Amino acid sequence: MKNKVLIIFKYPRANWNEPIINKFSNYYDTEYLYINNYKNKNYKELVKEINNLIKLKDIEIAVFDVDYFKFINFFFIENINVKKKILWTGDDFELHEINSITASACDLVLTTCPLSALKYREKGYDSLVLHGEYGKINNNQNLKKEIDVLFFGNITPDRKDILDYITKEGINLKNVGHESGSHGIAENELVKLISKSKIIINLSKSRTSSVKNYSSENIYKFYYQYKGRLIKAGLNGVACVSEYSPGQEILFKDDEVPTFFSKKECVDILKKLLNDNELLTKYTKKFTSKVCELFEDKKVFEPVYNKIEKINRKKIKLIKIPYWYLRISAKSIMLRNIKLSTLIKIIFQFNIIIKLINNSNFVVKFLIILESIINIFWYSIVFTLKSKK
């Protein structure tokens, strides 16, 4: 009989959640839930509901989807009653600062980026790479290659500039990218387009106008982020030309993924490959063989499964949890399902905040208690008025 796993997601996102569910389901009896389906539960009620489910179904392992969702923090994870706790992150490039604190409540960190995994190991965490793409090898790879170069994903001003330059230089580019906030092409249609392409273009700069910094003001405009497009291209038997990222540099050699920094370098590489079928075939075979060997679902999950089954390392103990993290956690706890009609329930949750700041100095305790009181009354009014519109 398979052991049971509960994956706690923020909210439903088919192309993001399903690949992770599939990977765990190959080895575990997998349950999952979405936090946003419990909109009428406050912090205490939600923790109790999840723990009741865990007890009812005899679940031993929980996986926490933490990215851009401050509610799933160190204190929330600490209160979930399972034997083994796993943090999973797909955007650690700008969330590592906050995620690495949350991870101290977990036994294992799974991340989509190999550089991110090394950063966790540097801090003493057990960490492995687990990508968030559909990991099935596409056997329908012999379709006629009608598309020279294909781009898919979010369109940013920087990416548009590169893509426009590629087209201007006379390269046959099919662009099925989408604006931020809108849905991209359906997965089955995308797979067909990839299979009909000779080269996938991967652009790695992070998409936002600045990289988040939780402990101070934002400093960097972008990071070079490891992207799942490489995996998607390789599993579908297609070569990939990529903008630089240190994550892919760890995994791939220059004769597997040609890499560029500037749009001119990108065009030069594309023209060289498209004008030499023998060279393109050589790159394609070497790259796709590597991807299939590393990232097919069962192969990529086998070391993860072995690690989960043999977890024996003690959790990392932090010297202290910083003020900015305590602020974020306190606010996310108190604002859960807050409105005037639930005000009494929220006030009775204040003991959670007291426990949260128990080891902090007087100044931190005073500031967080004061801010929490203000937040309770201010947001209960704001959210009540919003719900009536």
Core attributes:
Rossmann fold, single chain
Tally of strands: 13
The radius of gyration computed from the alpha-carbon positions, rounded to a whole number of angstroms, is 23 Å
- Which structural class should the secondary elements be placed in? alpha/beta
Taken together, the total number of domains comes to 3
* Percentage beta strand: 5-15%
Give the strand order of the largest sheet, numbering strands 1, 2, ... along the chain.
2-1-3-4-5-6
Oligomer: single chain
General shape: globular
Taking pLDDT < 50 over at least 5 consecutive residues as the criterion, the unreliable ranges are: none
Number of helices: 16
Please tell me the overall pLDDT. Answer: 90
Topology readout:
Layout lengths: L3 E6 L4 H12 L3 E6 L8 H14 L4 E5 L8 H5 L5 E6 L2 H11 L5 E4 L2 H9 L4 E3 L17 E5 L2 E2 L1 H12 L4 E3 L2 E2 L7 H9 L1 E6 L26 H7 L3 E5 L2 H6 L7 E2 L2 H12 L2 H19 L1 H13 L13 H12 L8 H5 L2 H7 L5 H26 L2
Parallel strand pairs: 1-2, 1-3, 3-4, 4-5, 5-6, 7-9, 7-11, 8-10, 11-12, 12-13
Give a nutshell description of this structure.
The protein is α/β, with parallel strands linked by helices. The chain is built from 16 helices and 13 strands. α6 crosses α10 (263-274) and α13 (323-334) packs parallel to α16 (362-387).
